[in-house]
Design goal:
This protein is mainly α and 96 residues long. It has one domain. It is built from four helices and no strands. The N and C termini lie far apart (67 Å).
Amino acid sequence: MDWIDLLQWPAMAVTVLAAWLVASQSKRRRTIGFWAFIVSNVLWIVWGWHDGAYALIALQVALAALNIRGVFKNDPELAEKATEAVSADAPRGQSS
């Protein structure tokens, strides 16, 4: 058995922990839960790549996008900062 085969167990544990945290009424715990979900997405992608589970990889990429959305929806201040940073980096039109 390859060491990477064992990666599915911490991935599963982090996923369960993340689900428990996201169900919390505490904003801080929910935020930590979404970040934990993102960590689990990465772990599942690594395991899936090694195992050739491409549907699992696609699922984890989609779930990671939803978890990133969850981070921003759960923390409007962070979303505002990210929007401001993107706006500041956007190219400005030239005036004539």
